[in-house]
Amino acid sequence: MLSPALSPALSAAALPQHTPLVAATRDGLVESVHYGSAIALDADGTTVASAGDPLAPFYPRSSLKPLQAVAMVRAGLELPAELLALAAASHSGGAKHRQGALRILEQHGLSVSDFDNSRDLPYGPAEREEWLRNGGRSTQLTQNCSGKHAAMAATCAINGWPVKGYLEPSHPLQRLVATTVTELTGEEPLALSTDGCGTPLYALTLPGIARAFGAVARAAADSSGRNDDGGPAHLSAEAAVGLAMQQHPDMVAGEGRDVTELMRLLPGAVAKDGFEGVQLVGLADGRSAAVKISDGGDRARMPATLKLLEALGLDTTGLAALGTAPVLGGGLQVGLLQATDFLSQPSLSTPVNEAL
Question: Is the pLDDT of residue 208 over 80?
Answer without folding.
Answer: yes
